[in-house]
Amino acid sequence: MLISLDEIVPDMKTIKEKHSLAMRWTHWVNFPILTIMIWSGMLIYWANDEYSITLFGHKFVRFFPDWYYNLLHIPSRLAEGMAFHFLFMWFFTLNGIFYILYTLISGEWRQLVPNRHSFKEAWLVLLHDLHIRKTVPPQKKYNAAQRIAYTAIIIMGIGSVITGLAIYKPVQFYYLTWLCGGYHFARIIHFALTLGYVFFFLIHVVQVVLAGWNNFRSVVSGFEVIDEQPKPVIETAHENEKA
Amino acid sequence: MKTKKLKKELTVEQKIKRRNFISFAVFIGLGGAAFGGWKWLYNSPEETAGITGGAHQPLRRALNKTELFFRNFFSNNNLVKTYPKSMAAKVVRHNSDIGSEGKLPPESWKLQVHKKSGEVLQITLDELRALPKTEIVYDFKCVEGWDQISHWGGVKFTDFISHFKLEDEAKLQYVGLETPDKKYCVGIDMPSALHPQTLLAYEVNDQPLPGKHGQPLRLIIPVKYGIKNLKRIGSIAFSNTRPHDYWAEQGYDYYSGL
């Protein structure tokens, strides 16, 4: 019995379905659209680039330095930026609505939205990722940190649409502008959310690289390959015998 | 036994390979198509210069379609937020004076209103001053992204329409305004022109308009970006087609509504 198991098992792989087609589609459609939105947003922002990070009277970061503008050919393209931004806003919004509706209707939100354990467990994930703690935190499709990050990014997307509308039509959608704390604050949030996407992207890419090929492939092909290991079966058998 | 096992293993392997192949082929195919689509759009030809100009042809179409969608939300009940006079800027920002440079000799100016009949009304500033004065303190918004609370006074556009019996003209779809030298011009859709906060302004901060701000009469249309707030109105005309518009010819959205 044990011998035959050993013979079959060593390179026995199984396909485990992971990401639905809708999730993969919206994920990959969003990536270039968001890139275009950020780029065209910079063309617009350039025309009134008033933001910086100033602490105790010292200006640490100016958004954006001249070398950065020149590198990306940003200056003097306001009209073009607006034309691109107000076309791709449609795709960004519709893709987002489609994803949210799909996630709600399919029930996939249950694997995504943080539950009452997530905020505590997210720390364990962080400690594990930083190699401070060895124990692998509990994980189903997403671990606690992923649940928080991937839910937050959706909320940020909604925030971009709302603050965007608040500065795009501040008279017709005055209630959105009011909700966002006024025209100025809406513009600041709209800008800060964009910085947030860039930050998310950097962490996301590092995590994807660390997680490896099998994980990356699952966001394209939808499945992961699981190597079935015989050991647990045998060990359990041993433990049972002992007990 | 051995052959059976091999077959079974290959089936899973084959499945994996097959699905990998299909999904990555589709992924790379669609990615390539998306990139091609982007290159096409980015390099798409500029629209033929006319009433609008300077934008990529497909993007101009998109701007016009987007205008139609957002026009559905326009309502005279949606008013621009107003502020107390004390919050109005003492130094009003000046961005451009195309078509309104320097000071105009007051006696040489008359507002020309082109009626449907072909008749041209010649209206003096005193005639406009004699009409009920409306004031507004609101947040003026520039397409560049800056804004400033400013205080304007003048004749409400709807008061102007009814006083000079221009109701028939107001049934047309657009108003076109030009500076006396015709260097600057704007086209305004009629619903925005007839919005209760649209003014033909002759005062800023309780003083007659200085040269910089469109002396003697300018358009203040809070439901539009600053580019539509033409300084120094020389003539007003009405039409069912889009009138000339300075910035729409240079790649900006014709509607530019807020």
Unreliable segments of 5+ consecutive residues of chain B: none
Summarize model confidence as the mean pLDDT of chain B.
92
CATH architecture of the largest domain in chain B: Alpha-Beta Complex
| CATH-defined topology of the largest domain in chain A | Fumarate Reductase Cytochrome B subunit
Helical run tally of chain A = 11
CATH superfamily of the largest domain in chain A: Transmembrane di-heme cytochromes, Chain C
Number of strands of chain B: 10
N-to-C CA distance of chain A? 21 Å
CATH level 1 name of the largest domain in chain B:
Alpha Beta
Q: Tell me the overall shape of chain B.
A: elongated
Radius of gyration of chain B: 27 Å
Describe this structure in words.
The complex is a heterodimer of chains A (243) and B (258). Chain A has helices at 2-8, 21-45, 66-71, 78-106, 109-112, 118-129, 144-168, 174-179, 182-211, 213-221, 231-242; strands at residues 13-17, 52-55, 58-62, 223-227. Chain A is mainly alpha-helical and 243 residues long. Chain A contains 11 helices and 4 strands, in the order H-E-H-E-E-H-H-H-H-H-H-H-H-E-H. In chain A, helix 4 packs across helix 7 (144-168), helix 6 packs across helix 7 (144-168) and helix 7 packs antiparallel against helix 9. Chain B is of the alpha+beta class and 258 residues long. Chain B has 2 domains: 1-43; 57-250, Sulfite Oxidase, Chain A, domain 2 (Alpha-Beta Complex). Chain B has a 5-stranded mixed beta sheet. In chain B, strands 3, 4, 7, 8 and 9 form a 5-stranded antiparallel beta sheet that branches. Chain B is elongated, with a radius of gyration of 27 Å. The mean pLDDT of chain B is 92. Chain A binds chain B through residues 7-8, 11-15, 28, 32, 36, 44-45, 47-48, 50, 78-80, 82-84, 86-87, 90, 169-174, 183-184, 187, 217, 220-223, 225, and chain B through 5, 9, 12-13, 15-16, 19-20, 23-24, 27, 30-31, 34, 38, 54-56, 58-60, 62-63, 66, 70, 73-75, 78-81, 139, 141-147, 222-223, 247, 250-253, 257-258.
